[in-house]
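INFO worker-7 received task bundle
INFO bundle size: 2
INFO processing item 0
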Amino acid sequence: MRDLDETDMEILSLLAENARRPFSEIGDVVGLSGPAVSDRVERLREAGIIEGFTIEVDRAQLRAGVPVLVRVELPTGSLEPARERVRDTDGVEHVFVTADGGLLFYARLEARNVRQWIETRFEGIETADYTVTLVDDVEWTPSVDGVEFALACAECGNTVDSEGETARIDGELYHFCCPSCLSRFEDRYRRLEERA
């Protein structure tokens, strides 16, 4: 896998601004044809750098409730069940886990009693405390500028650089830092297939 070049980074920046931008328009900016941009985007997707294309819905336009930022402090062992519960709740748009093990999420709540809404969501899950902050305005500006991408070797976890190897095994694309890691991975893969 070769390193990402300036054109790849520019394509990523343009897609981060507007994921629905036509490839021909991106090509005009970066000096490539639409099909060439499409090929690069597909390569970035196969490499796992682009995981998908999403939309950001302005729920205010849908009259879908009051925007709030909720921070929940959880005792050890409660984080995963709480995160799963929040992630699967309608109206919750972003879920974060803080470095100190707290849970933070942005939601639009239709409930008139926020305290009751939160207590209902966490019923059966122990919580230490929570705070709710009313959000006045939200701005989301994704950026890939200044970000370095590094692929990890599927065998040893080291960074894959321009001297690395790429292989498609059973339809899946894998990246390796060196030929010996590729060889070890393929050998282990064959042994596992033989046992199955």
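INFO item 0 finished
INFO processing item 1
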Amino acid sequence: MLKKILLPLLPLLLLSCYSVNAEVVVVVHPTNNSSFDQSEISKLFLGKAKSFSDGNQAVPLNQEEASTARQEFDANVLSKSGSQLKAYWSKLIFTGKGSPPKEVTNDAEVIDLVGKNPSMIGYINASSLTDSVKSVGKF
């Protein structure tokens, strides 16, 4: 009896066992010709650098904490958990040495803002990439 109930659900159960490891793409304005590697991107998002390699101001955009893109970015690019980042930013805010990146709600908002502003850098799910922005790294 249990087999008859579980057998049709097996494909769903198997799919739910896999974590949703979506690739994230770091994006900038199409005219941005700066060089980027994981270390440089990390410095921008951790407030350790304020400009791109070409000297122009950099304004990083974070997605909401609960988003898949944010979780993947934090783990794969910044090598930190959400709680580690909260503690990191709390310390910088308390000491007056920095503030976290502006937070936006989703991929579409990142694409819209980055596509209109050469100073911005953000990240989106790889499946959301459009010609409005330029990919500078996939993680």
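INFO item 1 finished
INFO post-check item 1: The CA atoms of residues 19 and 137 lie 22 Å apart.
INFO post-check item 1: The chain has five helices and five strands.
INFO worker-7 idle
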